[in-house]
Design goal:
The chain has 344 residues and is of the alpha/beta class. It contains 11 helices and 9 strands. The strands form 2 sheets. The protein has a 5-stranded parallel beta sheet, with helices on both faces. A 4-stranded parallel beta sheet has the order 6-5-7-8, sandwiched between helices.
């Protein structure tokens, strides 16, 4: 029986109002986010985090002053642990590593080392790969694991934008939400993903491609003739050009088209400020102002049975000391240089 440590990666979030500014600093001090050399990145991160902290604290005040992402990730870890315990002969233990707030990679790496596994499996809770999320988390983990003295084989799952369980979970959640729409009311399905600066995608990041593939698969799984759906991007920060169309633009368009909206947070697997505040409060208010005839928000997949089963299935079929997608082989077209399976 082999001992296998599963490390779940997520963004993290402040656990109290006083944590908001340091959390923001950690975010903007990430070289994958602010692509400047130090000391310039450190100075920019200090400036942005100090300026944004009051606004961010107000945002978190709507959800109790803290992010629920760690609690939700723990629930996902517990569900995955339970699923793996019924599969195969190996012993699995699930750990959590957050990128910008506790538990950080160095904390988790120490726990993993002390458990003394035979193999470490890296599993991001970002279905679609980006150098700014999964790429950053993997790099941070590699540094932490080296410092902790972890030398056992490490296996990495880079992405799973079209994984059957993930797609089925969202299709099920959307179907249930559509039951709330009054008969005869036309609606448009908006797959809203966290945005990225356009230049990052232009430089070879496959995130947009993978988000759009997820949306295509979910729309096909719904199997609804004449389904009206669109991919859009939220959470823009700063003056640079970001992925388009924005979720705000699509809300405006829905008002002009006299159609309702069903919002799907397609790149998120747990609830946090971008869903509970941005989608549920800010965008809902905008939809009302723009006379959108019905605004419905689909929950994230969370611990949906299909999603957890899909994660477990991918863990069980991963090959030791390898980087793989949901399919094992590379799924990104050539040209996306940030794909971790470039040499495959």
């Amino acid at each position: 029986m082999a001992k296998k440590a599963i490390v779940l990666f997520n963004l993290g979030g402040p656990d109290k109002p006083a944590s908001v500014e340091p959390f923001l600093f950690n975010l903007f001090n990430d070289p994958a986010i602010i692509r400047l050399p130090n000391p310039f990145r450190w100075l920019v991160a200090k400036l942005i985090s100090r300026r944004r902290a009051p606004v961010a604290k107000e945002i978190y005040s709507y959800i109790g002053g803290a992010s629920p992402i760690l609690e939700q990730t723990k629930a996902q870890a517990d569900a995955l642990q339970a699923s793996l315990e019924t599969s195969g002969d190996d012993e699995y233990k699930v750990f959590i590593s957050m990128r910008y707030w506790h538990p950080f990679s160095n904390e988790t790496a120490a726990e993993v080392r002390d458990w003394a596994p035979d193999e470490v499996i890296l599993l991001p809770l970002y279905p679609q790969f980006s150098s700014t999320t999964t790429g950053s988390s993997f790099s941070d983990w590699q540094n932490a694991a080296k410092k902790a003295g972890i030398t056992v084989p490490t296996t990495s799952l880079c992405c799973y934008p079209m994984e059957e369980g993930f797609i089925a979970a969202y299709a099920n959640l959307i179907s249930e939400k559509l039951k709330e729409v009054p008969d005869g009311q036309p609606v448009r399905l908006l797959f809203s993903a966290h945005g990225l600066p356009q230049k990052i995608v232009d430089q070879g990041d496959p995130y947009q491609f993978q988000v759009e593939e997820t949306a295509k698969r979910v729309a096909a799984k719904l199997d609804m003739p004449d389904l009206d759906w669109k991919v859009c991007y939220q959470s823009r920060v700063g003056p640079m050009k970001w992925l388009e169309p924005s979720t705000e633009t699509e809300i405006h368009r829905a008002g002009e088209d006299k159609i309702g909206l069903v919002i799907v947070p397609i790149a998120f697997v747990s609830e946090h400020s971008e869903t509970l505040v941005e989608l549920d409060i800010e965008y809902a208010k905008l939809a009302k102002e723009k006379d959108v005839v019905g605004y419905y928000r689909v929950n994230t997949v969370g611990v949906h049975a299909d999603f957890i089963t899909g994660l477990a299935a991918m863990v069980l079929k991963m090959q030791t000391a390898n980087v793989s997608s949901e399919a094992g082989a590379r799924i990104c077209p050539t040209g996306f240089k940030d794909c971790l399976m470039l040499a495959s």
